[in-house]
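Dear colleague,

Thank you for sharing your sequence with our group. We've completed the structure prediction you requested, and as agreed, I am returning the results in plain text so they can be pasted directly into your records. Please verify that the sequence below matches your submission; if there's any discrepancy, let me know and we will rerun it promptly.
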Amino acid sequence: MKGMVFTELLDMVEEKFGINMVDSIIADADLPVSKGVYTAVGTYPHEEVVSLVMQLSKHSGIAPDELLKIYGEHLFGRFHGAYPQFFHGATDAFGFLSSIDQYIHVEVRKLYPDAELPHFECERDGDTMKMIYSSSRHMEDFAEGLIRGCLKHFNETATISRESISDDTSVFTLTRG
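Please find the predicted structure tokens below.
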């Protein structure tokens, strides 16, 4: 995973829980590659994010799945600040989410050729959209948080349901209203 995911996670932890929490989760997490030192442009094993989140859960009492959703929502706002060009022309959440694989991930790969990104296939039908998420990393909760952040960014509401259809594929169904 790209280092920005790690640096922003630690920034969010500091913002919400304080610098002592950052120090605690880094000290207690299994971080064999980075040893807890991240740069935004580096690449690190996604297992280190999992380890950090598990330690944050242990120290905060908040379930790991909820922490990943909170973090995804937080990171979406940071993406908007860091990459405003990805948002030009986007007028609503469904339109933006539908562009992830065909536009945003294409552009991300230009910036970071070694990025390992999930795959999204979207099907829209009026006020409902299905997002088929495929990834060997099993970061569905994180993806749901990013979806929540997108809805919030566009000041829209939608119910989000999720169904696992295989070991590495889930379907998010978003219904406006």
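Summary note from our side: Residues 3-62 form one domain.

Kind regards,
the structure core
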